[in-house]
Amino acid sequence: MIYLDSAATTLQKPPQVARATAWAINHLASPGRGGHAAAMAAANTAFACRQAAAELFHLSDPEQVVFTFNATHGLNIAMKTLVRPGSTVVVSGYEHNAVTRPLHAIPNVTVRVAASPLFDRDGAVAAFRRAITPEVSAVICCHVSNVFGFILPVEDIARLCRERQVPLIVDASQSAGCVPVDMEALGAAFIAMPGHKGLYGPQGTGLLLCGDTLPQPLLEGGTGSASLVQSMPDFLPDRLEAGTHNVAGIAGLLAGLNFVRRRGVEHIGRREGALIRRFGQELETIPGITVFRARDPQAQAGVLSFQMEGMDCEELGERLGRQGIAVRAGLHCAPLAHQTAGTLERGTVRVSVSAFNQPQELRVLANRLRQLRRSGCANG
Fold first, then answer.
1. Which position among 40, 80, 86, 368 has the lowest Cβ density within 10 Å, counted as fewest Cβ atoms?
2. Do residues 24 and 44 make contact, with C-beta atoms less than 8 angstroms apart?
3. How far is residue 353's CA from residue 6's CA, in Å, rounded to a whole number?
């Protein structure tokens, strides 16, 4: 199989991730649940994972790194800390349902969309500048669009938020591990990310990077600390980590983080971007294919969407899947992004790469698409 769906999950992991996960299942107990060797080893592994993340994402205190189930979990914590019923919130025009659905669930929240043209970084900053007014309670922005790979200028948006004293939540689901994410420089209130995408960890893992705001727990329960107190601890990470940890997942995530640190985020990002640019250029030579790509290499990560004339995107995705090529097709859980880009009616076929993809895999996909056009399959 040629796997080109890493924006959903990086299926191809470094081998050490599976080894670490299997080792943890057989050797680690639970952090904070005992003073014996297996519990202490689990605590050391958890702390090592926090420390690796703090170094990679520039947090001074590893205890501000909170383990979550995924980015959605972390985003829910962040939003339900900062957004109250009746609040006004500004989001980009490229947000995932992981942002828009929780906002919809909070009563009487006004969601103001800072919509801007696709791949227009200056336009994005201008849109946020217009949208961030005194009544705004929070700004939420994805770093990279999961549909189009558009790298939003979060540094400039963060600067606007600091100037106007509005807390910022960053969804780093598509950037963590391939685009630099600097918590200290951004000054964000929260940055949420999954473990199973660009960090090459197991599914069911994620990280929430916390700034100075004391977050509100989504879950209450045992933490292994402050056991006499019936409210959740007022310190991190315990305040947000009720119940038993996913220790095997954390061990695998630590291995994934170490892989990214050794390869280098910038190196991974440059390589993925180069693969996508070459693929996009080749697609543009095929009649009947519309390619959504940036002309500025700094504006697009290793994710690209396209449409083929005469064929439904989901049908095309299924056809490619039967031929052993894994892509994703449809709305990708981000209807707002499609509405902003003008692709809501049809959706797109999305190709996304990882550190393990090779140029020849993308050439195979381009050739399959070319064959489909020549055979007339795309015309019914």
1. 86
2. no
3. 6
What's the pTM?
0.97
> Each residue of 60-109: pLDDT tens digit?
999 999 999 999 999 999 999 999 999 999 999 999 999 999 999 999 99
The span from the first CA to the last CA of the chain, in angstroms, equals: 26
Alpha helix (H) residue ranges in the chain: 15-27, 37-57, 71-82, 97-105, 121-131, 154-164, 183-186, 247-263, 265-283, 313-322, 335-341, 359-375
- Residues 6+ away with beta carbon under 8 Å from 342: none
pLDDT digits (tens, 9 = 90+) for 262-273: 999 999 999 999
**Domains annotated on the chain, with CATH:** 2-10+265-375 (3.90.1150.10), 15-263 (3.40.640.10)
